[in-house]
Amino acid sequence: MTVLGVIGYGHWGPNLVRNFMAHPEARVAYISDRDPAMRDKAALACPGVAVVADPGAIFQDPAVEAVVVSTPVRTHFPLALEALAHGKHVWVEKPLAATVAEAERLVSEADKRGLILHVDHTLAYSGAVRKLKELYEAKVLGDLYYYDSTRLNLGLFQEDVDVLWDLAVHDLAVLFHLLPVRPLAVSAQGVAHFAGRPVNTAFLTLFYPRNFIAHINASWLSPVKVRRFILAGSAKMAVYDDMEPAEKLRLYDKGIDCPVEGGPGLSLGYRTGEILSPEYSSQEPLALEVEHFLHSLAQKIPTITDGRIGLSTIRVLESATRSLALSGAPQEL
Amino acid sequence: MTVLGVIGYGHWGPNLVRNFMAHPEARVAYISDRDPAMRDKAALACPGVAVVADPGAIFQDPAVEAVVVSTPVRTHFPLALEALAHGKHVWVEKPLAATVAEAERLVSEADKRGLILHVDHTLAYSGAVRKLKELYEAKVLGDLYYYDSTRLNLGLFQEDVDVLWDLAVHDLAVLFHLLPVRPLAVSAQGVAHFAGRPVNTAFLTLFYPRNFIAHINASWLSPVKVRRFILAGSAKMAVYDDMEPAEKLRLYDKGIDCPVEGGPGLSLGYRTGEILSPEYSSQEPLALEVEHFLHSLAQKIPTITDGRIGLSTIRVLESATRSLALSGAPQEL
Amino acid sequence: MTVLGVIGYGHWGPNLVRNFMAHPEARVAYISDRDPAMRDKAALACPGVAVVADPGAIFQDPAVEAVVVSTPVRTHFPLALEALAHGKHVWVEKPLAATVAEAERLVSEADKRGLILHVDHTLAYSGAVRKLKELYEAKVLGDLYYYDSTRLNLGLFQEDVDVLWDLAVHDLAVLFHLLPVRPLAVSAQGVAHFAGRPVNTAFLTLFYPRNFIAHINASWLSPVKVRRFILAGSAKMAVYDDMEPAEKLRLYDKGIDCPVEGGPGLSLGYRTGEILSPEYSSQEPLALEVEHFLHSLAQKIPTITDGRIGLSTIRVLESATRSLALSGAPQEL
Amino acid sequence: MTVLGVIGYGHWGPNLVRNFMAHPEARVAYISDRDPAMRDKAALACPGVAVVADPGAIFQDPAVEAVVVSTPVRTHFPLALEALAHGKHVWVEKPLAATVAEAERLVSEADKRGLILHVDHTLAYSGAVRKLKELYEAKVLGDLYYYDSTRLNLGLFQEDVDVLWDLAVHDLAVLFHLLPVRPLAVSAQGVAHFAGRPVNTAFLTLFYPRNFIAHINASWLSPVKVRRFILAGSAKMAVYDDMEPAEKLRLYDKGIDCPVEGGPGLSLGYRTGEILSPEYSSQEPLALEVEHFLHSLAQKIPTITDGRIGLSTIRVLESATRSLALSGAPQEL
Hints:
- 4 copies of one chain form a homotetramer.
- Helix content of chain A is 33%, strand content 30%.
- By secondary structure, chain A is α/β, with parallel strands linked by helices.
- Chain A has 2 domains: 2-115, NAD(P)-binding Rossmann-like Domain (Rossmann fold, 3-Layer(aba) Sandwich), CATH 3.40.50.720; 124-283 and 315-332, 2-Layer Sandwich (Dihydrodipicolinate Reductase, domain 2), CATH 3.30.360.10.
- A 9-stranded mixed sheet of chain A has the order 14-13-12-11-7-10-9-8-15. In chain A, strands 3-2-1-4-5-6 form a 6-stranded parallel sheet, with helices on both faces.
- In chain A, strand 9 (201-207) and strand 10 (213-219) form a beta hairpin.
- In chain A, helix 4 packs parallel to helix 5, helix 5 (100-113) packs antiparallel against helix 9 and helix 7 (163-178) packs across helix 9 (307-325).
- The interface between C and D is large, with 60 and 60 residues.
């Protein structure tokens, strides 16, 4: 039985609490939130849990083994650092921290103390993404051509991070988790339409070795909700659409056959074969992530989206912010 | 009755011929194509039309008033120039030409001789785009935030132009036709996966005054076909989806209300109102374009997608090609 | 504060418990279930609630004002009757009972004792259906032509009722709730593919006065999930699609204009106007139903889907079962 | 080279003419239409073809080997009969005729004279339906559970046949072509909302041996266009959606496994496996049907949708009309 304290009961917090409560090997002992309205909501929904204003009680209680940080991004660093300092394992909502320096410090603190530092990149735990990783590793996709993601919706504007830090971070985690290759440079463009607010619509391109390219289109200012990426390879092309109730993942046996290297003319052959929607687990990704986290704690092994993956995403985001200020001038990574 | 000659009976040519033949005020007198197979196809489908290998016959025949050029891009310039030199009005498939220099020359030749130079940017003639222009001009959209377009499909790889010149050109024509604002700079990224072939997957961002931004995602290497753009304004957001059999245009009464200028906190108000799919003409866009072209000839006035619009798109494309080679380094326009 | 006991923590029970717990004016005092696994699940998720095997404790506790029955259909009648006998208000999952005789008895018992008898026809509380009722009552739809519903999915086969009693019942409740007209006769067809199991795929047609007709296509044996109905009127046609994440309701300004009464020839005029997706509340329907139930208790007024509506649906279902056994022979209502 | 005359240049006629003209082994010698506007249209589009008002010229010309009848249903019988009487092969638009008696007479006349009588059930020639037939015959679907089709759109109201004769006829042809089993009885319901006009919205159920059932929902009065059928079997379930630009056919590896015969409880096992969209020819179905018709003429063998298939569909439709008048009372076939 792992005893936990959850800091932050806002947008995502209730989902975290519900999933930890439903797990027979976890016990949520505390929920803390600075906002009295959130505390009232937590008290109604979770009658047996101590609901507090100050997270200090969580840090002080030696029975608490792990702390879940689900608060605004600028507070990730101090809260996670204090939890580590008190010898607690940590689960931090994405993005891990607000700067590369903060993220590096958290990774090294966790390493030093032998504690688990987990970043909540939930997408990596969806049944469809796990199936995609399995297919990629079985070399079903062939050589990779590109990754192209679109993440659009209306709101929720974040206060302290821009839309790339909020939405593109999902794709970066998937890319670092899924593929062994590492990006060489980044170019980003974007715009902030409201004075004093972060960039709400942005585009990010990652350049990789061997002609692989990744592109992410992210906006908080779209009338339609889109959550879709394509991972195109020479043998198969995968489309992941999170808005599909079922069949989130499709594998297209389409592509270009026998391109004549360097030859002139329209002699490329198109392959338009069958489409397969493979079976995958439809379990709630967060339930699976909770299971994986508890298992990692028990086994003392890193999670698949640990602090190192979190740090890699922050490195890209910090460079993308620089490129964006320069209208897309590429930044080496 | 306008007498025409059509040069090129490949991919798009049969559509042009069919629409000109169905118009009671036009007569297709010639079809020329270098490929005997295409000539056989033309002869079967159009028993009453002279089918020739060499376009020379078209230029020489004084009865021909207008020449339609539907051939590979690199031949647009010489064929259109020769047609103008023979005093014919010209309809050229998009893009107008392969370089800014060529496009400028064609525009000045047509001007000098008082001839119509029309570029076949068919999208501008679709009922839904014309309705969108009407709505924009009636100030229904409010202040513009962004234009975001996605044009994906598998093939048809062009031989002599890359995917931006082939697909993004549609969006550039719509932007120049729809909006009075002009872009300041362009950033583009892309990749050519097959040696000796043009870039097949690319991303283009246009920077405009007053925080308006346009982005185009184009690929010939996608397993799914997508033809969609969003034009988001402060009052309404329009989504145009060409793959919808009906309801191609939707107007969302969604957005951000009363953003507190410079104020901190999550105090933006979201507006999630009704969605309207306005009625628009479902006539075939090409039929309407043919009608408009014939009318422009009769009235001796430029078409709405004339050589000047065609030249503007070429200017952007040439700069985008430079930016793409520099991994997105922005280029002023 | 209304104190409740919930009987049955199977498929739908957890949703009921969650919504009652989240309401500040309700307190779930008991959850009962015969299955120890369901009791363990309830105990984990609801630490402060008494979880019991036998519902007797709920009936006996005078503090309990209302009983929620979420059990297999054959047990609705005895449990609801016993709850009423103990002076409790009752919330029963749909369908109200297994026979017309049972449903009539429950309605008369509730009437006699001045207790609320509520049937959980959740669909009637969805924001989109409430908006549709509002539009219908404002005469926006014009004269009604037909109602056409499709409810398909794979499983969950019910043990003690067939697919019409399980799925078509949603439409019947909507029809009785939405429209003042009452059906005159019913015809139904269907088939049971597995020996000893109820009919899993069936079709039901209701005949109404003045050429209005309703049709329901229901199956537990479909590879795709569909939840959609059309309510077509002379002025507007509404389409409700529950599988759409947003825009569940669309209003089409389409139809037939000026049909020449009795005239020959193809002289009907088609009207293909704009399409509107009106704004409606996106609150969880069950949360709204809970709110409405608690309000009805406080005000001592029937809910909008009370025992009488429940009884009307059972009358149709019983006749449909007869028609189905006769390959569609119509049954008067 | 087969010489043809086409009678009727209305809604479907131009497609027939275009496809016959594009075939190198066919020559359209005549087009006849009573309407001068249609003749003008034909003359513009087909400069080399004789366009006449009276079909008599076609019957009289001994060079004409085959006559294509694309006229209102009530004229199918006299025109097809006259064509056969003149020794011509006949292609008739669906439905073959207006009554069983007429259809029987045409079949026997064609038989007597050794002429081909082809009914234009185009759906049977679509690449996706041919692939489905191939899969069915390879026993990929397993035992058949049901066929469930939905054909909805707004207009085109037919003048002389109702919506079942116009739309359900497509499904009947597919059922007779695809499956060896024959229906035992039919039940139909429907309504005519406009005085003097045929039934515009109707539902038809076919009862087959061994618990197979077929259902067709057809309407000319729907705001949305739907063209979809499910053919569910014990091993695979197929969904054919004609509105999908690609992937019209999907094969779901979903169903019920190991149903315990007669056993109680919820012990059915659900199988939710992968989904496959098989590759199939995307050639225009009508082009393929033209090819098949010409080949049948050359080989003197019946087409796959010959007069006998056409007659079978008429038998069902005539009985359905009787059932419809009796509110669904089943009629034996």
